[in-house]
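__Record contents__

***
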Amino acid sequence: MTTKIPKSQYDSYFEHYISLVEEYPLDKALASGMLTTTNFYESLSEENWAHRYAEGKWTPKEILLHVIDTERIFCSRALQIARSENTVLSGFDENLFAENSNANERTAEDLINEYISVRTATISLFKSFSEKTMNNTGVANEKPLSVQAAGHIVCGHELHHINIIKDRYL
């Protein structure tokens, strides 16, 4: 079942991510996203993986690990919002995470395998939530966030970064 996510369940910052996948049921968006993302990153050459389109910009390795880290954080947020009342969660510094990630010292295969493992766990997590739970809303980084919005943000966020790599790196 496809549901329009009420704008009261997420901050307008995430509108773009949600709009990329909202017309799909979350289970389908998560499964198709895994296939799309895996195929995309597997198609990159070794040279592509190490490329920066400008000084100080992340490599595709750092981007994929950023996608993985962000997915983990949004799953943690979704879990806490699903299981608690009046949940208030802090934000995270994505640049500090990337700086401390050591992504460029890892192989592409290792990063892709980690992505698949995380996405598989994400699919299981969101399957465990009832329809009612999907509408539970808490606060993350001082902004509203529902369980279903967190899931759609995960899906749209990875597509957003694939589009950036296609536009600026390849």
About this structure: The longest strand covers residues 137-140. The first helix runs from residue 15 to 19. The two ends are 36 Å apart (CA to CA).
